[in-house]
């Protein structure tokens, strides 16, 4: 937001905002200070010329590919791509992301408990292999999650036998590079018997946390701090927003509910490295299903801890109109973008 202002105005405002933010939890707009603005500019300027951009990726920016998913009984046929697509993860900072289907996080996949997944990965990357590791399945990973060569495709079959909110990611070495460069997402396996609170829920959304590092810099990904920590949403129902993991995505496209609604979030922290302390300001979670399994039912939680790859279903009721921000309660990560908002109206 400061990027469109003069630099001196930004310095003055940064100081003021930082002072104010120290006083109030309510003030959780992501604030990028001027030094990290400059870092971003340097990163951006260097990204195109940087040796970190794989030679064969220079000039490659593949259009997003819609998710292709079809069902025949309990057999689900899922076709996805591995592809190189530019994503503007912060104002004027384009990241040449390694992605599934041109989104980061990748597209939301929803199946039913017990479904057999027939998964095909088309690797559109001209230079390096990619793969798919669904946390929702049991398989021998050297076979079921095997690498697919550039310009090739591979098909894998496995069953989604347990309900939950699971991470998926590329599992090709070095895995950290593939995940941190954008190859992650969420698969929801809907429980056969539903959740005991299904009948109470009025609105439901998907929220994903991920973090970004210096462009394709394995050293920084391994030993450094994330440059951005972000929350995104994927459309679970028609007309819902569907965003990438970009700074301010869920401030620019807030979620919505009505007073009295019981709201359900399917949440997952795809990392790759950091944990999430998921919290909605101004309410608490009446019902929580850790990892999205109905057997893991908790009540009355203020904050839900999500390890890297961990998921949950969280439910809360909004009793008054207003703007409810949700954050990872590790506020250094809020400074880097880890905040969104839910607007509640009469
Ligand atoms: Cu990959």
UniProtKB/TrEMBL annotation:
Keywords: Copper, Metal-binding, Oxidoreductase, Signal. One of its GO terms (molecular function) is oxidoreductase activity. Residues 85-192, 237-345 form the Plastocyanin-like domain. The keyword Cell inner membrane does not apply. Pfam families: Cu-oxidase_2, Cu-oxidase_3. InterPro entries: Cu-oxidase-like_N, Cu-oxidase_C, Cu-oxidase_fam, Cupredoxin. PROSITE patterns: PROKAR_LIPOPROTEIN. This is Copper-containing nitrite reductase. It comes from Lentibacillus kapialis. The lineage of its organism: Bacteria, Bacillati, Bacillota, Bacilli, Bacillales.
């Amino acid at each position: 937001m400061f990027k469109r202002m003069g630099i001196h105005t930004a310095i003055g405002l940064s100081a003021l905002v930082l002072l104010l933010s120290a006083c109030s939890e309510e003030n959780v707009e992501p604030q990028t200070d001027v030094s990290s603005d400059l870092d971003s500019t340097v990163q951006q300027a260097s990204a195109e010329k940087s040796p970190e951009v794989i030679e064969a990726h220079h000039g490659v920016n593949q259009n997003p590919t819609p998710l292709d998913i079809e069902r025949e009984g309990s057999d689900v046929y899922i076709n996805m791509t591995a592809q190189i697509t530019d994503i503007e993860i912060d104002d004027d900072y384009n990241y040449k992301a390694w992605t599934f289907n041109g989104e980061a996080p990748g597209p939301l996949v929803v199946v039913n408990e017990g479904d057999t997944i027939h998964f095909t990965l088309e690797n559109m990357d001209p230079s390096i292999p990619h793969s798919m590791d669904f946390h929702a399945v049991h398989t021998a990973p050297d076979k079921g999650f095997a690498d697919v060569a550039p310009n090739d495709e591979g098909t894998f079959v496995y069953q989604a036998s347990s309900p939950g909110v699971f991470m998926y990611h590329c599992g090709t070495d070095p895995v950290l590079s593939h995940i941190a460069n954008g190859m992650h997402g969420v698969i929801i396996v809907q429980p056969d018997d539903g959740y005991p609170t299904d009948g109470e829920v009025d609105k439901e959304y998907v929220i994903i946390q991920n973090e970004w590092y210096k462009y394709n810099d394995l050293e920084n990904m391994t030993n450094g701090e994330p440059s951005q920590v972000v929350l995104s949403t994927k459309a679970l129902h028609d007309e819902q927003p569907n965003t990438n993991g970009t700074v301010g995505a869920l401030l620019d496209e807030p979620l919505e509910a009505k007073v009295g609604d019981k709201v359900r979030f399917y949440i997952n922290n795809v990392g790759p490295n950091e944990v999430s302390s998921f919290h909605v300001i101004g309410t608490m979670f009446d019902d929580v299903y850790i990892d999205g399994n109905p057997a893991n039912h908790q009540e009355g939680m203020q904050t839900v801890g999500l390890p890297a790859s961990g998921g949950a279903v969280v439910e809360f009721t909004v009793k008054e109109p207003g703007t409810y921000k949700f954050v990872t309660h590790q506020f250094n990560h809020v400074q880097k973008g880890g905040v969104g908002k839910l607007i509640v109206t009469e």
